[in-house]
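[scheduler] slot 2 assigned
[scheduler] job type: sequence-to-structure, two independent chains
[scheduler] chain ordering preserved from manifest
[runner] begin chain α
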Amino acid sequence: MMLAFTDRTPRRSATVARVTNALASTRSASRAVAVKVLPRSVKRRLRALPLVGRAAGRAGGRAPSAPRNPSHIPTDHARQIHSHYYIEEAMTGPNPPRTVVDLGCGNGASAELFRQWQPDVNWIGVDIQDSDLAKGIVGEKVFLYDGVNLPFPDDTVPLLYTNQVFEHVRYPEPLLREIRRVLAPGGVFIGSTSQLEPYHAFSLWGGYTIYGWRTLCEAAGLVLEEARPSIDAIALITRVYEGAEPRHNAWWTLSPLNEDIDAWAERTGADVATTNARKLQFSGQFAFRVRKPATGSALARATRARRRLGLTLLRAGERLVG
């Protein structure tokens, strides 16, 4: 029986190989035919566009390796922060926004945080339609929405803030596209979300990896400029397991594992980017700054044009081959 099994194995492998090669040939033919049917002017435009990103490498089908120091890993400091860090950054920087939107505003506590830096800021809260906390806000402008479609015109919001909300969002991709739509060109989306916090109350996703968050933002036409470490995952687990004791409150400023990583960095001479990367690897939550590209930027135009032409090419090939 063993000999019979061994004899059939090469045949089964050969069959699999033939099927795989046939599928690969079909895909190649589809692309080849699609290239032929495109007008020359379109093909010239396609070749002239700068490469914004590449799919998996041809050799062995392997994906390109990530840069050693991704641009969203900060190099200025490696302190543990809260989403409030980006409120201060935005409101004390040049040209602070006159209007800010808190997405998932809850009880509206962020209004006071923004007005700490700019007392006359136009604060607008947005939350889902069954949010009792948002319904109880008095003296502020608050909109209730369906969880996806934001109640603002295109290109009008200079700053949108969200604090520990996206792990609860049912449809994150459509909502990120809506955020891009309503942000003014060059506008910012700041806040925080969970990474390693699956036990968080009513959490749909448990958290996003940094890579996953960047991928979602890029797919929506947004740019992840920074991701910074917040409280570490072990501290969050301990806090929940032990019942949120008063001694845990200090961890929101500096949690034990982040403190250990600081000591490791000092001992080994690790640079700021490496220290941040290590903290982010074990973060229970992380804070971020995301930006909508300014209208007319070469990168934004090239990305959109390449995506449109690429889809046209593939669909044309599929129709002709299929």
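[runner] end chain α
[runner] begin chain β
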Amino acid sequence: MDGMIEVAEDSAPKDTRFSPSRWAATEKARALVEEVRSQLLSYETKFHPRKRQRRLADQERFDRIVSAIVCDLAHCALTAPSTWRHISLSKRESAQDGASFMTEARIDIIRWMSEPEMDWLELRKAAQVRNPFGGQQSTIRASARLRRYMEDLEIGLEDLGRDPELLGDPVILRGPKLKGQTKTLPVPEGEPVATFRSEMLRLNDWLARADIVCDYPDEHGRPRDTGDRWLRRIFNNGRLDEGGRLYGGFWQSMGKDARLEDLTIGEEPVVSLDFGQCAINIAYAEMGAEPPMGDLYLVPGLEDCREGVKALLNAQLHRPKELIRFPRGVRQLFPKHYKVGDVVEHILRHHSAIRSLLHAGFGIRGFFTESQILMRSLLELMDRGVVALPIHDCLVIALPNASVARDVMQASFKEVTGALVDVEVDGVCAPMPSGGPWPSMEAMPWIRLQTG
């Protein structure tokens, strides 16, 4: 390994929560954990001798706490070395994030690891820290000593795994947004949640075992955590038929160009498959109407303002009331003398068939339909042995599987909505990481290749 990455404070990400789900996935990582564990036991014997030996269950719990702390500190050191992890040292909290093994014993372990004789971590106690997650929590990060051991053992992100049992429910229900904030609500039992959860668990297990590689660092020079693949399906407004989009996965935080240029699936370059003008096509399908021919964002009288029409039309789909002013960032997409009422009227005339869905808050229901289409596509592709990475209304696919994925996505849209839709496919014309050429495009002329 080339050594730990230095990151300037102003470009570093924010502090994050400690995750007890991390564990040692390789012999190298287990050797690091064992070094810390054995030294902690020696420290305890010298400075805090026990009257009696730990019971086997208690010792196993002790060992797992040490493993979780070491592995999460190592993850933080590799991905965001200037940041800290928030963790509660309060005795009132008997466990951390659903991890029953993170008992009160974690408090002594963390304190001992921070002592000069140990020097495995840096500790900032709660009174010294402003906690964005509510209340007061202490923060920890890897010490220089722990980082040196990581370098000596050449620890990388591939050495750190995650326990899926501790990654939380993949189905999340959020309440209505109030003053820009939403609360997470209890997820009801029974159907349709049982099906949603079963599908997500299958998908997450499939992605966890997939050959997905990204050897290129992010824009700050930090390695990407390609093991971050746990997806959650988030529903909105306290309803299970609104929202439902998939969130999570390291690829979702990447820019489109970076995904197309830097990712490989099964050692193959990737392409991006998008449903063409998905939200509007779903709205037309909802009304059982045929959309106008051609580009749906090209409205007569507003042909030179396509991007503005796109932004405004999508706002109309989501807003519960008629627009009386341009949404933020949209005004500059139209000539100065254009009034929002006139633009809205042009759009309503051209898309009269879906007029009742505009300014009616349909967008969040449209998201549910979109998410059902994506889930159907993902599950069908999984059954065919094809890995697909979702990004809302888009899938990232290995290039050789582009044709089958395109067919599956179009069939899924038809099955869910009853309508036909185009699937747009983009790729980057760049050599594969190994230096080899792209496969022949003769069989897939509909892929738009950008110059990378």
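[runner] end chain β
[qc] chain β: The first strand starts at residue 16 and ends at 17.
[scheduler] slot 2 released
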